[in-house]
Backbone:
């Protein structure tokens, strides 16, 4: 399939041969651009940014680099190549041919899945829109904008599916995706985490590490879908998503590296002394981690879920890396979940595996989150500092699932509410923490220069030096 770059909307879906679809999308395009101008990165729409743009879905062309003004970015519609004779890989329709059209019985469920995924993409752009004004370097500023334009493209990917396969309902949903706004009192985004403000760069790195990783696992599940256009769309989105998590992992890693340097410079690990020296103390990093990890866990949904069982049974949403499992039908298997016993302890509940699919995916996510934590801890250990970052228990600070509303310590021990409240300051960012982190956020835009609280990256983008002018402010 060749990519059509002559069209107003770049695509590899032969948009030119479907006039009514093309017209519908061209009608939506100016609304998207208005949204981007109003709620995209504030103050940088005229800047030249060194961005990668997908020009084809193969290994050679999916990342083409060059300077571009963000409103001129070529947001396009790209689906991974079709696999000949693809079969549904799980659920009740296991082994049947994958669907090229929406199966009538599952139309509204499928639409809901696409809308929920689609809603997160513009939400994160909205959450991050003011971060450019306090960027720690031009390198980081560019990475922020790369993430933002790609989330914009992911919105395009979902809007394409809605327009192409869901008729008038789909077009209405596409309008709604631009009408809801992150944190809006009347029309908030669908999922909680995507209404949390991101007003400092430590939060931004935590978000790209933990929340974009939730995105990765949702996309992996949808990339297994029996509805082939959705599967192929998500497969290609995953290639872009990897960079977002890289920004998070290396961002947190650089914060930690700078803190370790300052610890050596001032020969102290006292949080107050470190703060005075302009670095972020490690207990504060841990509290931010606790917040964003626990918030992102809720995005996977309830641990016991008939909804999850249904979308699995119907072949709409599989498990991440479904091919790695032996049994793809899962009607006999069970899953052990722990839940509060109502007496301050923990009970085991055995449920049918299909009902525990959210938990299966959440567990795979937690394992994946550990990789970066281990890497950060290695750098702390190498510097000879007795501190270890940890992921809190999945019971900690949950708002969804059987642990919702229960007071649990980060190590997973249930405690009473009063004791929890008395210690919350140890576990979650306090107002003082946030004020301190905000006080560090000063815009740095001299090429190669870094803010006091973060170390430079190991290397630049696309083999360019770190001090390359990644954003020309104009
Ligand atoms: Fe995305
Ligand atoms: Fe992302």
Residues:
């Amino acid at each position: 399939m060749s990519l059509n770059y002559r069209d107003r909307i770049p695509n590899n879906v032969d948009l030119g041969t479907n006039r009514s679809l093309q017209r519908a999308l061209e009608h939506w395009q100016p609304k998207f651009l208005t949204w981007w101008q109003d709620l995209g990165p504030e103050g940088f729409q005229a800047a030249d940014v060194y961005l990668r743009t997908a020009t084809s879905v193969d290994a050679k062309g999916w990342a083409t680099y060059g300077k571009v003004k963000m409103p001129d970015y070529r947001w396009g519609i790209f689906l991974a190549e079709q696999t000949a004779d693809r079969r549904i890989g799980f659920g009740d329709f296991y082994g049947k041919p994958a669907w090229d059209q929406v199966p009538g019985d599952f139309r509204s469920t499928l639409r809901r899945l696409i809308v929920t995924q689609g809603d997160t993409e513009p939400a994160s752009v909205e959450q991050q829109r003011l971060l450019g004004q306090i960027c720690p370097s031009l390198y980081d500023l560019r990475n922020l904008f790369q993430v933002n334009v790609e989330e914009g493209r992911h919105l395009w990917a979902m809007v394409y599916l809605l327009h192409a396969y869901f008729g008038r309902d789909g077009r209405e949903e596409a309008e709604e995706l631009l009408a809801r706004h992150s944190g809006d009192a009347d029309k908030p985004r669908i999922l909680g985490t995507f209404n949390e403000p991101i007003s400092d760069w430590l939060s931004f790195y935590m978000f790209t590490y933990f929340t974009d990783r939730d995105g990765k696992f949702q996309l992996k599940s949808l990339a297994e879908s029996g509805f082939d256009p959705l599967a192929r769309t998500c497969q290609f989105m995953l290639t872009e998503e990897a960079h977002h998590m890289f920004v998070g992992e290396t961002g947190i890693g650089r914060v930690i590296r700078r803190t370790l340097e300052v610890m050596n410079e001032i020969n102290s690990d006292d949080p107050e002394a470190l703060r005075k020296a302009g670095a972020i103390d490690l207990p504060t990093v841990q509290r931010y981690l606790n917040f964003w990890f626990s918030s992102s866990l809720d995005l996977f949904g309830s641990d016991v879920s008939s909804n999850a069982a249904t979308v699995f049974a119907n072949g709409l949403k599989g498990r991440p890396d479904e091919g790695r499992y032996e049994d793809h039908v899962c009607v006999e298997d069970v899953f052990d979940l722990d839940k509060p016993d109502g007496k301050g302890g923990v009970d085991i509940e055995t449920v049918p595996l299909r009902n525990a699919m959210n938990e299966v995916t959440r567990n795979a996510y937690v394992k994946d989150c550990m990789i970066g934590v281990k890497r950060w801890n290695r750098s702390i250990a190498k510097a000879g500092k007795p501190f270890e970052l940890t992921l809190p228990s999945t019971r900690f600070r949950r708002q969804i699932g059987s642990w919702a509303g229960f007071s649990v310590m980060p190590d997973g021990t249930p405690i009473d509410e009063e004791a929890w409240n008395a210690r919350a300051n140890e576990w979650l960012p306090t107002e003082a923490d946030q004020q301190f982190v905000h006080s560090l956020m000063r815009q740095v835009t001299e090429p190669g220069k870094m803010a006091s609280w973060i170390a430079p990256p190991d290397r630049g983008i696309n083999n360019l030096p770190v001090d390359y002018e990644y954003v020309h402010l104009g």
About this structure: The chain has a mean pLDDT of 95. Residues 15-472 form a domain with the Ribonucleotide Reductase, subunit A fold (CATH 1.10.620.20).
